[in-house]
Amino acid sequence: xxxxxxxxxxxxxxxxxxxxxxxxxxxxxxxxxxxxxxxxxxxxxxxxxxxxxxxxxxxxxxxxxxxxxxxxxxxxxxxxxxxxxxxxxxxxxxxxxxxxxxxxxxxxxxxxxxxxxxxxxxxxxxxxxxxxxxxxxxxxxxxxxxxxxxxxxxxxxxxxxxxxxxxxxxxxxxxxxxxxxxxxxxxxxxxxxxxxxxxxxxxxxxxxxxxxxxxxxxxxxxxxxxxxxxxxxxxxxxxxxxxxxxxxxxxxxxxxxxxxxxxxxxxxxxxxxxxxxxxxxxxxxxxxxxxxxxxxxxxxxxxxxxxxxxxxxxxxxxxxxxxxxxxxxxxxxxxxxxxxxxxxxxxxxxxxxxxxxxxxxxxxxxxxxxxxxxxxxxxxxxxxxxxxxxxxxxxxxxxxxxxxxxxxxxxxxxxxxxxxxxxxxxxxxxxxxxxxxxxxxxxxxxxxxxxxxxxxxxxxxxxxxxxxxxxxxxxxxxxxxxxxxxxxxxxxxxxxxxxxxxxxxxxxxxxxxxxxxxxxxxxxxxxxxxxxxxxxxxxxxxxxxxxxxxxxxxxxxxxxxxxxxxxxxxxxxxxxxxxxxxxxxxxxxxxxxxxxxxxxxxxxxxxxxxxxxxxxxxxxxxxxxxxxxxxx
Amino acid sequence: xxxxxxxxxxxxxxxxxxxxxxxxxxxxxxxxxxxxxxxxxxxxxxxxxxxxxxxxxxxxxxxxxxxxxxxxxxxxxxxxxxxxxxxxxxxxxxxxxxxxxxxxxxxxxxxxxxxxxxxxxxxxxxxxxxxxxxxxxxxxxxxxxxxxxxxxxxxxxxxxxxxxxxxxxxxxxxxxxxxxxxxxxxxxxxxxxxxxxxxxxxxxxxxxxxxxxxxxxxxxxxxxxxxxxxxxxxxxxxxxxxxxxxxxxxxxxxxxxxxxxxxxxxxxxxxxxxxxxxxxxxxxxxxxxxxxxxxxxxxxxxxxxxxxxxxxxxxxxxxxxxxxxxxxxxxxxxxxxxxxxxxxxxxxxxxxxxxxxxxxxxxxxxxxxxxxxxxxxxxxxxxxxxxxxxxxxxxxxx
Lengths: 632, 398
Hints:
By secondary structure, chain A is α+β, with helices and mostly antiparallel strands. Chain A has nine helices and 32 strands. The longest helix of chain A is centred in the N-terminal third of the chain and has 64 residues. Helices cover 53% and strands 16% of the residues of chain B. In chain B, helix 2 runs antiparallel to helix 3.
C-alpha cells in the first residue's frame, strides 16, 4: 500500500508539472519567439518481484520545447531576403515617387524649354520671348538640380540608416553572446536545456537576420556561433564582434559597414555583406541610386553639349556669334584613401563627346607600371588608347585622361564622368539679346541673273571657322562651272552642297554664264530664326548612346527604367513576403501555442491529476478499513 | 493544410487578410477618386513611359497650334499689304490708260503725273510697313532695318533675301512672308523675254512691247531695228550682223525675227532706231517713277510718239507687277490652306493622342466600381469571419 501511495504521488507530481507547463504555454501564447514546451513523462523503473515486475509509477524526465532548427533556419533565410527586398522596394518607391509627376517632370521641363525655343523662333526679335526662353532654361536646370539634390538626400538617408544598422547588428551580437554564456552555464549545471533562454537567443538571431543574412553553427556546449554575410565571424561563444561604419575609400561622405576588431582595426565589409536591410540598402545604392544619378547627369551633359554646339553656330541680336547657353559640371576624379603616401600622381579627366559617354563610373588604377581602366560596377576592363600624356591623353568611352606626377604601385582613382554634372549645371546667359536665334550667314541671288538658279539659305558646318562670315561670290563661268570669289573653276551639279569657310549651301536649277550668288554675313538679321528652329529640333535628335538616342527619348526611358525597377522590387517583395509568411507558418505549426490544444491538455492533465488524487483517497480508505478490521 | 495551427497565427493570419483587403480597397478607392489607373511609374512602368511620350507629343502639337495662329496672322497682314499694292497698281494703270488716249494736253498730264507721284509714295509706305511689334514686313531677316529708301537713283532695297520659316508640324515649316526684293524689286521686265525701247528718235515712230511667237527660235541678244530709209528697216544683232531685212516698213505692220514679233507704227525718220533687249528685272518704283517722268515730257509729235512707246511699256510693266502681287497672294492662300490642313491633321492627332493616353491611364469606372463593391464585400466577409472565429475557444466550454 505504501507502493500504491508512492505511485499515486508520482502521478500527482508529474501531472502537476504537466499542468505547470500547460499554464506556462498559455501564459506565453503571444510571446514573440516563444516555443511551446512539453513535459517528457516516462514510467519509473519497475520493481522486480522475482517472478514479475511491478510498475512504480511515473516521472518527469525533462521539459522540452517544440523546435525544428531546419525550419527556423529556413525562416531566417526567408526573413533576410524579405527584409532586403522590403528595404529595396521602399527606397525604390521613394525614387519612383520623385519622378512620378508628369506635369512638372523632366520630360515636361524639356518640352517647355523646347516650346520656349519655338517661341523665340516665332518672334526672334522679341525680348519677351527671349526672356521666356532664359526662364525656361533656368527652370530646366532647377528641375534637374532638384532631382539631383533629392538623390543626394536619399544617399544621406542611406548613410544614416547604415549607421543605425551597424548599431543594431552590434547590439544583437552582444545579446547573443551573453545568452550563449548563460545557456552554456545552465546546461552544464542542470544538464537540462534552458528552453526560455534558447527561445530568447533564437529571437535575437532572427532579429539579426532582418538586418543582414546570418549563418548559425551549433557548438557541443549549447552555444551558437553566428557568421554574417560571406562568412564574417560575428559571435563566437560568449565573444561578440562589433560592426561599425567606415568611409568609402574614394568618396569620404559615403559610408560602408566594417568589422571592428577589439584592437580597433576596421575591415571594410562592402561586398561581403548581403541580405537583410543592410543588403537592401547597399544593393539599392549600387543598382538604382548611383545609376539614376549618373544617367540624369548623362542627360544633363547631353543637353549641354547638343544645345551649346547648336547655339555656338548661331548669331545673337548684336550680330555676334553665340556662346554657350548652358554650363555643366566636370568629370569627378577621386583618389583612393588607400593610395600610397609617396604617390604624387595627378589625374585630369575631360569629356570628349556626349555620344560616346556612358552612365558608368570607372576605376583608374596603376599596377605593374601601367595604368588601366575598368568599370566600377562590373569590373570589366576598358581598353584605352594614347599614353596619358597631355599631347596624347588616354582615350576611352568619351573620356580623355591625362596623368601626371609619379604614381605608386596600387594607386587607384574613381572617375565619375557624369555624376557631378548637374551640380555644376547652369545657364550662362543672362542677357536675352545674347541668345543666338539667327544664322550668321545669308545668301543672295544677283538681280541681274538670267538663269533659273536658286540658292539655299545656307547652313553652318563649322562655327569656329574664322572666315565664316566673309563674303563669297559664287560666279558661274558657264552653265556647268563656277568660280569662288573669282578664282578656281568647279563643276556645278544641281543640289550638290557647295562648302566653304565653314558653311554649306546648295544651288539648284539652271544658272547661266555670268550669274552670281553671294554668301555673306547676316548683318542686321535680327528677324532671322533659323538657328532657333535648329535649337528647337536638337532635343529630338540623336545625341546620346553614340548618336542613336535623343534627349527626349532618354528622359522618358530614364523615368520608365526607374518605374520598371521599382515595380520589379514591389513584385519581388510581395512574392518573397508570401515565402516568408509560409516559413513563419511552418515554424509556427511546430512551435506555436494553440490555446484549444492547451485547454484539452489542461483537461487531460487535470483529470489524470484528479484520478491520482482519487487513488490516494482509495489508499486511505483501504488503510482505514484495514485499521477498522484489525481494531475490533 | 497543416494539422495544427497556433492561436496567435490564427489571429495574425486573419488580421493580415483583412489588412490586405483594406489596402486593395484603398487603392481602388484612390483610383476611382483620381480617375487614373496608376499614380506612379512603378504601378505600370510601360504605360507610364508611353504616357510621358504621348503627353510630350501633345504639348508639342499645342505649341505647333500656337505657331500656326501666329503664322496665319502674319500671312493675313501680308495679304492686306498685297491687296493695297494691287489697289495702287490698278489706280496707276487707270491713270496711264487715261493719259495715253492722245487727247491729253501737257497740263492734264502733269496733274496725272502728280497723282502718280503720290501713288508712288503710297507704294513706298506699304513697302516700309511694320507689324505690331515694330518689325519691317518686307526686309527679309533684317527686320530692324528700313528696307526701302528713295535716293538719287530711285528707290533702293537695303533688306536681304531672307525668308523666315515657322514650324507648324513635326516636319512642316512655312514661310511667314516675302522679302521686299521679291515683291517690289525683281519684277520681270517687258514681256518677260525681251524689252523694246526707242533708240535714235527724230520721227514719230513708236514701238509696242511685242510678243514671243516661238520661244524656241528666240536667241537671247540685244537687237537694233534700224530704219535705212523711211520705208525700209533692217534688224541687226549685237555683233552687227543683219538677222532680218532689209524689208519694207508698213505703218502698224509687225516686224518678226528670231521667234518674236514687234509692231512699229507712225512715221520713223531715216536713221531712227528701236532696240529689242533681253528682259531683266525692274522695280515697281522705277516703273511708276518712269511713268511720272514720261507724263512730264513735251507735247510734240515726236515726243508724243516716244510717250506712246513708254506708256505701252509701262502698261506691260504694271501688268507684270500686278502679276507678281497676284501670284504672291495666291501663294499666301496656298500657305493658309496648308495651315488649315495641318490644323485638321493636328486636331485629329491630338484626339488620337488623348484617346491613347486615356486608354493607358484612365480607369474603366464600371469595372472599378464593381471591383470596389467586390472588395467591400470581401472585406466585410473577412471581418465577420474573424469576429466569429475569434470568439471560438475551448475554454468557454470548460
